[in-house]
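Need residues for this backbone.
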């Protein structure tokens, strides 16, 4: 997920920066709108940004390849602060990680944001909404969102590497080779992210629903009303 400087071609780096910019602009608009709706959103956004920084900075060596796997936290962030806002904080997080921790690089912030903030965050968020739409329990929907966001992040990171480095090897084959390099450590991390995302979201829903999106607050209100009517 943290692709280093010098690995991708300048053209690829520019292209991934362009994709990121297309999501950052509506992300800034989303943040401004949410701040107008809830004054607590701004400090909450900062807290989520710190959480994503810490979670995605934890690294676990990948056997043989010399690379590392990381949890992401962007699926959870997308659920609680919004998917486009998550792209914005992911870009900021990846910048500070590149500058202060040596994770990733400046030229590859666009590519790393596409994998972690856009692909990981958006896929987790969309799956979560789809599962809720078919009446899936909230804890289970959140868990699968975390798992999917984690795995999709690394599928896209592997694809980014394969596009630039596949040479004479077929793109699909090289893509799977890169992803299988991550798989031994990333699959357990994805399962851990399932549990983490589910636990955090359920705890927030019961203790601080005011910090969550409106439709989740309304969902919690309906649950409480149903319980009261059954008593």
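Answer:
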């Amino acid at each position: 997920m943290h692709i280093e400087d010098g690995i991708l071609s300048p053209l690829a780096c520019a292209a991934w920066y362009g994709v990121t910019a297309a999501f950052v602009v509506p992300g800034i608009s989303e943040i401004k709108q949410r701040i107008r709706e809830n004054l607590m959103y701004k400090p909450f956004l900062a807290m989520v940004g710190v959480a994503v920084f810490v979670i995605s900075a934890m690294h676990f060596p990948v056997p043989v390849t010399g690379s590392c796997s990381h949890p992401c936290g962007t699926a959870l962030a997308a659920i609680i602060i919004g998917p486009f806002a998550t792209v914005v904080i992911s870009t900021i997080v990846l910048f500070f990680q590149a500058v202060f921790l040596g994770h990733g690089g400046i030229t590859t912030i666009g590519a790393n944001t596409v994998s972690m903030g856009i692909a990981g965050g958006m896929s987790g968020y969309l799956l979560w909404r789809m599962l809720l739409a078919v009446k899936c329990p909230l804890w289970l929907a959140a868990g699968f969102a975390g798992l999917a966001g984690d795995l999709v992040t690394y599928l896209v990171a592997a694809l980014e590497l394969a596009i630039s480095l596949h040479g004479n090897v077929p793109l699909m084959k090289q893509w799977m080779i890169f992803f299988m390099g991550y798989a031994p450590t990333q699959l357990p991390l994805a399962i851990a992210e399932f549990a983490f995302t589910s636990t955090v979201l359920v705890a927030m829903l019961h203790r601080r629903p005011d910090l969550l999106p409106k439709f989740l607050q309304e969902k919690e209100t309906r649950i409480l009303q149903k319980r009261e009517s059954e008593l």
